[in-house]
Amino acid sequence: MSAFATARQKMVDGQVRTSDVTDHRVLDAMLTVPREAFVPADRQGMAYLDLDLDVSAAGGVKRFLVKPALTAKLLQAAEIRPTDRVLVVGCASGYAAALAARIASHVTATESEPAVEGNAKQLLSKLGLANVTVKLAAAALGDPADERYDVILLNGATEVPLDGLCQQLDEGGRLVGVFAIGKPARAMIITRSHHDFGARVLFDATAPVLPGLERVPEFTF
Fold first, then answer.
1. SS3 call for 89
2. At 221, is the pLDDT very low, low, confident or very high (cuts 50, 70, 90)?
3. What's the predicted TM-score (pTM) here?
């Protein structure tokens, strides 16, 4: 077993399983997808640590792979079915999209930074994940084609409401992510049913805020 494969197994056993992730499809995806492939070469030694890992392009806006355990817990909460269409918002280098693609029928992944988006396309193609489409788009837009999805996954946090993005949920759809609108920040699930939406808190969580979903600073005298 390679050093990375050993680290991957330790990540799943020591970080993911201990965070109450029991869905075997999520566990299998995390044991299969090489997280180190989505990390710049000079940071691959940190690929399996319990941290939000910087995968930014040189001189670009900061982009991160969200902590492995949090990613796994959100995927589990989304209850992705093999027939589902999934939208990953703010995919960074594509790790969360690759995990979802191991479970879902098709994944659309969006990224707002052109250099990072191009890198994600190359990495996902290199891994042979033909059921993933990567698009350049602002996080708040979701899919610019305004398609409907069974699951929307935020690969990061939002400090603003996501009313527009929720409209891209199909009937029975689920949106999962970290909402840092108030304190403390919390992972939440939003569900769509009969053109209405319901929200439920999953657990307290923190994640880097996605570019474009930052809180607008209030003007003070």
1. strand
2. low
3. 0.95
Q: What is the torsional sign of CA 16, 24, 131, 124?
A: positive
Judged on CB neighbours under 10 Å (0-12, 13-18, 19+), 83 is exposed
Query: Residue 89 pairs with which residues in a beta bridge?
Result: 110, 154
Q: What share of the chain is helix, strand, coil (3-state, %, to 5)?
A: 35, 25, 40
- Residue 53 host element (H or E): strand 53-54
Q: What is the dihedral sign for C-alpha 192, 81, 156, 22?
A: positive
- The H-or-E segment that residue 75 falls in is helix 68-78
Question: What is the set of domains in the chain, with CATH numbers?
Answer: 3-204 (3.40.50.150)
Reduce the DSSP state of residue 73 to 3 states and report it. helix
Other CB atoms within 10 A of residue 39 CB:
21
Token digits of residue 4: 């990375």
- What DSSP string runs through 164-215? HHHTTEEEEEEEEEEE-SSSS-EEEEEEEETTEEEEEEEEE---PBPTT-PP
Instruction: Judge whether residue 57 has pLDDT over 80.
Output: no
d(CA 176, CA 75): 8
Helix (H, G, I), strand (E, B) or coil at 157: strand
Please state, in angstroms and rounded to a whole number, the distance separating the CA atoms of residues 219 and 169.
34
